[in-house]
Amino acid sequence: MYASLLAALSVPALAIAQTVVTVTDRVCVVEPCPNGGDAAPAIIEAFELCGHNEEPSRGKVVFLNETYNIRSVMNTTGLKNVDIDLNGLLLWDTNIPYWLNHSLPVGYQNQSSAWLFGGDNISWDGHGYGTLNGSGVACPGRPHQITITGTKDSTFSGIRFVDSQMWTMTVIHSDSILLEDIYVNSTNIQPVGFDFSSLNTDGADTVYANNITFRRWTVSNGDDSIAMKGNSTNILIEDCDFYEGLGVAIGSIGQYDGVFETIENVTARNIRSYNMRYGAYVKTWTGVSSGYPPNGGGGGLGYAANITFSDFILHNNTGIYAVTQCTSYNSASGNCDTSKFNLHDIRLQNWTGTAVSDVVSAIQCSAASPCTGQEIVGIDILDTVNGTAPSQYLCDNVSPVGFNCTGPTWEENNR
């Protein structure tokens, strides 16, 4: 289409890195490199040419219905007033030594990213088929697929993410973002069964993020579907389908010794959960610092508050809901009563469906900072093992609302 337009207008084509054609001064069409070469330099150049615009003008970066091989890291931040039209496939190279040595720092937990992306007033449309394929395998230190950083007043829709290298997406230092009609599938690395294995294949994580909406996501993975981490506020997750993972996660948080962080005003509603470990769960580090991020830590301060999980439908979950303040380095046990990170005003409302568990909730809170305002109401779930309604509410250091504690927690995955 754009080539025809060029011919009709008799506009000279400007080749950038031999693969980018500028149709006008604000529209860049990216074409694949011949012979499977690295498309990353051309993509970066396209955003440089067409991704920085002053209102009322907008730029546009177009990916054709082709395969683009990504063999190097990309930093396309500081964008302004630009539309991204993704019709094809961005396919990441499998050169693991390169990614281990060249990935870009995210600025949290010593994590890294293959692509730092961001700016103001961005609109990205994948049309339901535009895809980012990370060619991922489980390998320590591999980068996140994409990091949305320094971004505000932007929309991302209709994008597919498959086989992410690690976390699919991190939203950090960003405000007022809508992410809707997103598909994530990172399940071909390893089967996920009754005893789950954490694969670090999170669907999305928020850090230092405010006013973020996740709407109509489909996530199939072996880890957190969507997770809120340090300083995440005013987050809405709604009308989503989550498969074969751990659930909606608050945390982990409290990893940085002596650092005050918050998670506040989070709503997850109208969630369908299939063969998951939990519908939702909350996790903090202990109050004893051991090791270093991303795998170690502890001793953090702060609170998670005003969190609502409403209208969840469970389909054959292995568990229902859990809180733990026992997270520690390399899964070390003990020190569960030491965390000073506080959890208060967390609500479960109107959960239905099926699970293979007699435990509605296992809420293990720290004696150093007991949980208050833990509300559970409107639970109508069938334990398919016993053919009865789950009856146990396990608690440590909890002030319950709407339910009575039936005993203490006894392990992380109480069933």
Summarize the structure in words.
- By secondary structure, the chain is mainly β.
- The chain has a domain of 170 residues: Single-stranded right-handed beta-helix, Pectin lyase-like (Pectate Lyase C-like).
- The protein contains three helices and 26 strands.
- The longest helix has 11 residues.
- It is globular, with a radius of gyration of 22 Å.
Instruction: Give the overall average pLDDT.
Output: 90
Q: Determine the CATH topology of the domain at 246-415.
A: Pectate Lyase C-like
Rg from alpha-carbon coordinates: 22 Å
Q: Sum up the overall morphology in one term.
A: globular
Q: Any idea what the CATH superfamily of the domain at 246-415 is called?
A: Single-stranded right-handed beta-helix, Pectin lyase-like
Order of helices and strands: HEEEHEEEEHEEEEEEEEEEEEEEEEEEE
Distance between the termini: 57 Å
Annotation, overall tally of beta strands:
26
Q: Tell me the structural class.
A: mainly beta
Largest sheet: 24 strands, mixed
**Helical element count?**
3
Would you state the CATH class of the domain at 246-415?
Answer: Mainly Beta
Strand content: over 45%
CATH architecture level-2 label of the domain at 246-415: 3 Solenoid
Report the helical percentage. under 10%
pLDDT under 50 segments (min length 5)? Answer: 1-17
